[in-house]
Design brief:
single chain; alpha+beta; Jelly Rolls; Immunoglobulin-like; 4 domains; 17 helices; globular; disordered N terminus
Length: 978
Amino acid sequence: MRPCRLPIAVLLLPLLASCVLAAGAVKNPEFVDRATGNAAWPAEWTAAPAVMSLYAAVDDDGCADKDSLHYQAEAEQAVGPVTQSLAFKPNTDYVLVASFKSDGKVLPVVRLKGPDGQLAMVVSDGTKTWKSFSARFNSGAADHGTLEIWGDAEAAASKPALAGAAAIDGVNLYLPSEVPATVTVATDFTPPGPNIALGKPYALSPRPGYSYCTDPDDTKQLTDGVRTVGYFWTQKTTVGWQNAAPAIVSIDLQKVQPIAGVSYSTAAGVAGVAWPNSILILVSDDGTTWASAGDLISLATVKGAPPPEPYSTHSFATDALKTHGRYVKLYIDQPPYTFVDEIEVYRGPDALLELPYPKTMDDPLAIFEQKRVHAAVLWRLRSDLGAARDAIAAAKLPDAEKRGLLDQTAAIGADVEKLPEELPKDFKTILPLNDLHARIYALYAPLHKAQGLPLLTAWQANRWDPLQPTEGPPKKPSAPPHLRVQMMRNEIRGEAFNLTNASADEIRLRLTISGFPGDENPACISVREVPFTDTRERRPIADALPEATRAAGAYRLTIPSGMTRQVWLSVNSLDVKPGKYEGKVTVSGSRLAGDIVMPLSLRVYPFDMPARPSIHVGGWDYTNGPTMYDATRENQAALISALTANYVDTPWATSSVQPQNAKFDADGNLTTDLQFTNWDEWVAKWPGARLYAVFLAVGDSFAGEKMGTPRFTRMVSEWITGWVKHLGDQDLQPEQLVLLLYDEPSEPKGYEIIKTWAMAINAAQPRVTLFEDPTSKDPAEADPAVWPELDILCPNLPMLLGSPPSFREFYAGLKQSGKTLWFYSCSGPGKMLDPITYHRSQFWWNLEMGAEGSFYWAFGDEGGGSSWNAYMQQRTAFSPLFIAPDSVTDAKHMAAIREGVQDYECVMMLRKRLAELEAKGSKSPLLEPARKLSVEGPDRVLATINIKNLGWFAPKDRGVMDQVRVEVLDMLEKLAKL
């Protein structure tokens, strides 16, 4: 089982302030003048005759005035550019500008090409009103070029242009000193010299492998001067890796050169693609001895970093280098996906050739590991300081107070740049990261106070909504929130509230819960102080649910100045009698004017959540060996305990648990005793599991015998029969063995392997459960003979959501034919996905389609690192838990899975009760609304969920599931009396 492929994103570029009308290097930039004898064609611009029919100069819809160039294509077709030849100075900085508007279907482009490739480009973001864009660049060795206008970015990428309409205006080329005051240049970076990497050879390690952009020209595209046009990671002009940490690019400048700067052009902001954490720059004169020139990301973000969202392209650039070398090597830390279309190295003054290297090294990778976390911390501090500065500037504060706060930001900024590279050995990405970070967050305290908040404010939003460290209530609440929990017996349900500190200092608090059966702070309610943690994607989350510290009869909470802390109450009703309870949560502290008291209502309905739910749950945990992904010897027992506590009843193992020591004679008969050591050790870790699932990863042969022969069939028969016999010795049934033969089949070869193996297994042991997770875009095109051989079909749920109705109907048809239906999801990064729409909703889709299993990739995969230090993760993280090498902590994403199981069982209990009453012949008027609720309740929930809102930060109503669930509980209570 493997995670899914990255989806395609949308292209956005930096925006200018207004339309442009001024002199520059381009002739007729506003398309005012018409060509002789052609009133519809702009003078000074040329195009092929076939292209001219798609463009026209009009005088009724311009940006700076009435004139502009319009593009109109009625159908998808090949389209060439409108061009103008230009002369300019070599090794000179210029600014290319253009204004666009579009119907949203096409993205107009203006780019400047020199003799050796592209020099600059601006692209529309698809807006339907006029917007202006710019790009600053250095002309390098070029002294002339061609300015191109393309009606659609697809055509500029040598693909058929889409049908649509666009308008172009104000196309011009300026020296930076001549840029009109109305133009806001998209970047203030000025290359310190010509690009000496242009056209130079380089080596890549590891080999690029992201399929949408990989091609043979990857070995020259990073220094060819050509920028990507269109969707960044689907264009062949981009070079891409997946899960490469680091990706290494070694450029040979072919002679020792003075080096003043480097730039790295990339894209991020959607579909799990994040900006680089770190790019270590190494230089060498001989290719053997290397010296560090610094971290490009740290150097390039001194004045700020691009936001994590939405999607955009960006060049990380610095002119602060003072070094030399023939070789420049970049160690790029940009997992899970690394994308780059151009790397430039800028020549500096010859005096740099005389400077000695400060220090050389034999192990560059060790330096890379040291710097990557430091660079990520710098990014976090700079980004948050910039956000604080903007918030202060926008706040309604007295001028003197605002000036004082801005002075503080300047002082903090100076201290940020002095941050030592060596961080504590126990460093964690818990926010604030350090005292300096706490000072940044404290800047928000007077902003909260200016909104009328007292020293400490208790407030509430939906407990599943994403929360940010300095977020306060939308408005000052009139009273503390009323907390409510409604549940069956033997459930675990959550409730949460937020505390915002508007004081200048950290606040330490005591929290007590009273009014419930038992002593104060009853055992049925667990208090979790939710920490903020940073992620590789640079989106802070409030997700982990560690238990709050308890001392002297109270829970202890700490809230830094300016920050908000969420408190999560986890209620376990196992030992609580049915009924209604009214208690309270009291928050007190020595600095508070008085206690904050929040009513807490608990209702426990008079029926029980089954200890063993009817739905199957699992997540490719692969806990059969001592280590796998981020399940280690030290945390594996804790991981298994956490999973079983959250209804996981179907553990997964790798193929290493299959019977060993199998040898066969010429006819395929087993001639040795099978060994089950690995299997037995794994089963012992999961006593009482309902199913034991194994990913066999079979191919087109078995023990050297090609599949399809009589000997192959006999060998498989003997082998699986021996396995089933061993199951009997363990008091396990053959149905409890679930085999995934071939992962995510989508091609005929995979289906042929599955069919052949399945037929051999079914002929010998038909009670063994055969499972498949097909990923064919149209499963109806697969060999129809494969489906009768399988027991469980488990389609990818996000794939189903993004597919036409025929996809869903196909699997519904298989279920009607007698096949069991499960669902799985394998998108990531896991912590960026919504606990409601991605994790919990999967159980509602099970209800909707009659599916009986819910699975996720992958419970033990946390990106090759720790959830508590996400900066060191080497690939996409998927686990819904917080995993460290020696611990496992509950989290909201896992709680959402747990509550999804309970949701499923609640609705199934309603359906079961309806069936009982109908079998008894009940004529109660309650039956009709109950039937309607059992069907339309899931419909109401799923109407709020679609393929576009699976991300945690997408706005949505997260309260519908609990609304429907409580309606079901109320109906069950009524039906229980019949």
